[in-house]
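hey team, just a heads up i'm posting the complex here instead of the shared drive bc the drive is being weird again. everything in one block, sequence lines first with there labels, then the predicted structure for the whole assembly after. its two chains so it's a bit long, scroll down
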Amino acid sequence: MVEVQPLIFTDRGRQLDFHHATPTENQVWQLLELVPDPELPMVSVVDLGIVRSAELQPANSTQEQQWLVQVTPTYSGCPATDFIASEVHHTLKRAGVPNRVETVLAPAWCSSWMTPKGRTALKDAGIAPPLDDITTLACPQCDSRNVALLNQFGSTACKALYRCNNCLEPFDYFKTI
Amino acid sequence: MSDCYATQGHDSLNQYILHLADNPLVLGQRLCELCTHAPILEEETALMNTSLDLFGQARNWLDYAVARNPQLGDCDALAMGRDERHFLNLLLCEQGNGNFADTMARQYLFDVWHRLTLQALCLSQDSQIAAIAAKSIKEVDYHEQRSRNWVIRLGDGTQQSHDYMQSAINELWSYSDELFVQGDDELQLVAQGIAANQSSIEVQWRATVSQTMAEATLTLPTDCFQKFGGKQGEHSEPFGLMLAEMQSLYRAHPGAVW
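-- predicted structure starts here --
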């Protein structure tokens, strides 16, 4: 489990040093796992499925060798999109990994790209992870299926608000898209 | 379509992209005006989330217009730097919020059109148009579920809510024919497989809306005077006021960033 770090954290990425070496793709993904989603800091951008690819581009006449990292927004209007792209860029840069971050729209992000680790982290934080079949939705606190939809549009674009009729706690549900 | 803006470096495809951008941009701004004014807290977050989705979609379209023609500057310059006559949105999107029934009726009539148009655009020969449409449609599905529910709930609710919703539909019906009007330039893009064919969308839209109206115990107006012009940059009077508010910060401090 990736340790949750503060959102503004200028040392993120300094744990690994590639100023004089080229990292493997696995090592680049390790670095990317250090970047949290700013609105759901318990999950990394990798676990959310926001980072689509990391690829080493060889040097050419106009630029030195660098990593091309592709990210995709969860929702078109997600206000965190620019912040995430900037955090990804700077985390790699601090570790000495030259990179360019590119935002891609196709294929459109879907909630099934979330990793099992990401889903568990959401549930542990009291947010029900996305489901293919909404009738199986259970309260993340007490696991009761006796829940009611309060609002299809919750505290952020990606979440709906539910209430558990068993423990009476309201909870967020990460919507399936 | 009039070429009032074509002289400023827009080919017909960019005009079409601006039309696709201006619909969510203008409706998003209208919804924004309701911030802190919604009848209940849940509706507040729903209205603002819808607005946010629409702004995000508008930004994707505007970014694409700029990518095709970098002389346009950036998406902010297009959203905040254009004058009223250069906006190519449907008149429906710019209508005032009115009461809650007016807001939800406007949303529903637009959402159905929006979903059908985006569905068609998912198959566009232009891959970036298809990508933006595929991204947007997932969000618009949620918008339509909600606005449809409200039209039915108010229409088939109390006598008072029914009357409010019926009068909202009667008022907004004047802007329904414009949804399906396509000029020569746009029809050429349809022939090339790039733009959505509104004549087939019109059939589906009328069938879907009629079914919802029946469920909501509402009647569709007949012989309704129809208004046109939004897609040619000819807007209704309140639109200028909306734009003045939306653009005031950008125009007072050009180039300002956070």
